[in-house]
Amino acid sequence: SSATWSPLQFNALNIYVCPSGEVAALAKSAVAFDPSASDLPAMAESPEQFRGQSRLPRFAEPLRYDLVLRPDLAACTFSGSASAAVAVSSPTRFLVLNAAELAVDRSSIRFQDWAPTEVAQFEEDEILVLGFDRELPLGEGVLAMDFTGTLNDQMRGFYRSKYEYNGEARNMAVTQFEAADARRCFPCWDEPAFKAKFKITLEVPAELVALSNMPVVKETVCGPLKTVYYEESPLMSTYLVAIVVGLFDYIESSTLEGTKVRVYTQVGKTSQGKFALDVGVKSLDLFKDYFATPYPLPKLDMIAIPDFAAGAMENYGLVTYRESALLYDEQLSSASNKQQVAITVAHELAHQWFGNLVTMEWWTHLWLNEGFASWVSYLAVESIFPEWNNWTQFLDETTSGLRLDALAESHPIEVDVNHASEIDAIFDSISYDKGASVIRMLQSYLGAERFQKALASYIKKYAYSNAKTEDLWAVLEEETGEPVKDLMTTWTKQQGYPVIYAKLNGQDLELEQAQFLSDGSSGPGMWIVPMTACCGSYDLNKKFLLKGKTDTMHIKDFAASQSGQNFWIKLNIDQNGFYRVKYDDELAAGLENAIKAKKLSLMDMIGIVEDSYALSVACKQTLTSLLRLLNAYRHESDYTVLSHVTSVCLSVNKISTDANPDLSSDIKQLLIKLLLLAAKYADKLNTVPVFNMFMCDYNFKAFMRFTFQKSRLGS
């Protein structure tokens, strides 16, 4: 039709009405899910054919965006214009892209010099379909349009965040586009595989700071407004585009290579950004060496946002944080807050390589982003602050993943995502904690040096591109010669993990695996398990793959020099593996002696008690065995070990209070002994501040509650 249509806003859907009053919104008939939705026929006959599909078609893809945005912080609205260079690869008369909660000005839409004859915006699919009266020429063309939207209060898309300046309430404009919310700011191909270059321009009040991914090229001031032009970005996914507009102060430093790093805060808070700035600079230098690839952008900004849904977001060159995740006050913040700031900063900066430079092909491979960033953030912080014993903190992440993944309702690391609406559901402890833990397990099996070299090759091969989980395994396998794909597929494509039953039979160590479930039931899972073992000393160790349900490890030569109380075998050295171990009575007794003699690492001291508790809860071992093990820790003074031991004691006490009052009393006495001895050691070793930190732990607060109750009862 040649009639001129005008847009009517109805929720997030633009319904176009012709002058005769005819409604041109298309009927909402469902289209069955097609796994090859990205290969929809280019020669579709109607916009309706694109409805109900999980992904955008690939017959036209963006190469570059020129984006102009004008946020109105008083009215909480914005207007904009987008011009996208598009490569048309197959004959078609349609362009299909994402748009949601935007009012697109139909009269402004042009592809080259052509106006569309059909415009359909499907609210439930968040897509905009443009139909033309002729076939589009193959090759590059330019799509342009104007649009308006609302600076929402939902902390996603282009939104407003409130702050105070000189006692006055103000709004700042902020973006949060992961996972699929760039479409709420501007029409775009809002999937991670559609990488393009971005040239952004902002028109804002002249007194405000306006930040984006790239450095400012120039600013021009016209009355109360200024126009800020930014450098063109390298190829990047839409979810990494970022814009922040408001009043800020900043502090800055530089990396060894001269990359400028800044921390932006609300006015007057820059002193609280010094620690994050220091960690950020050191992390960039460290990751440049580790990945053997320079930081890809000319600058890095980190900014604290008052209203922020996530802990932080790794936008390319402009990382946004919740204030508590970036700012550290030396006078008021706790030691744990300091560690969390360091971990969070390192995590987001690791994404600049693993996630931003190399990006997952689709959200099914989300764990590639989050698992790797979580793991490598601990690697970085351990290097920057070795005195923190940071890997013992990482064990908390592993423990969290183990607890969640022992539920029958868990899910694999890799989850097939069929629609953008499903994405948020997989941002959980499996993506982050289990993902990071199995990567650490793989690194331990392959060896740190071989693993690092292979990762560097992977980054180089897929830089400025996209990759799937299988692509990573292929590179690691090629670089190391190990069966990485077969091994890791058992960990990423099925839920759960095994418990390894270890039994001593003469000179043989008999091993058997079974899926561990916290309810005590049996699961069908089977894994290729990277096993590590040491005997009597960490210098006597072995590494092998448990490929079937059972295997036997010959230990005659391995354990020949060990006898009596010096004989002990520890599987899963330093808890590098994502599995639990159930020892027979003889092996368990040997480990109890090793604990008393302080022969084990902190990681293993924690891992043994966590495994034993989980096995007891699942009725895989007796409570008596657990209590005997807990008693072996009665002379322990390390804070992190005590934190886990007392947490287990409190959990057992909670279970046993009604069922067995005598047992509850014994557990309380053990806790008293643990804490009193810890205080004595702290005083002797002049580590009272560490002990004080422990005394403030939630475990101690709970302990004080039930000892107070006991004293009131006179028992």
Automatic annotation (TrEMBL):
The active site is at E348. Its main location: membrane. It is a peripheral membrane protein. It is found in: Microsome membrane. The keyword Protease applies. InterPro entries: Aminopeptidase_N-like_N, Aminopeptidase_N-like_N_sf, ERAP1-like_C_dom, M1_APN-typ, Peptidase_M1, Peptidase_M1_aminopeptidases, Peptidase_M1_dom, Peptidase_M4/M1_CTD_sf. GO terms for cellular component: cytoplasm; extracellular space; membrane. The record marks Y432 as: Transition state stabilizer. Residues 275-491 form the Peptidase M1 membrane alanine aminopeptidase domain. Zn(2+) binds at H347, H351, E370. It comes from the Eukaryota. Its cofactor is Zn(2+). One of its GO terms (biological process) is proteolysis. Residues 568-680 form the ERAP1-like C-terminal domain. One of its GO terms (molecular function) is metalloaminopeptidase activity. Keywords: Aminopeptidase, Endoplasmic reticulum, Hydrolase, Metal-binding, Metalloprotease, Microsome, Protease, Zinc. Binds 1 zinc ion per subunit. The keyword Endoplasmic reticulum applies. Pfam families: ERAP1_C, Peptidase_M1, Peptidase_M1_N. Belongs to the peptidase M1 family. This is Alpha-aminoacylpeptide hydrolase.
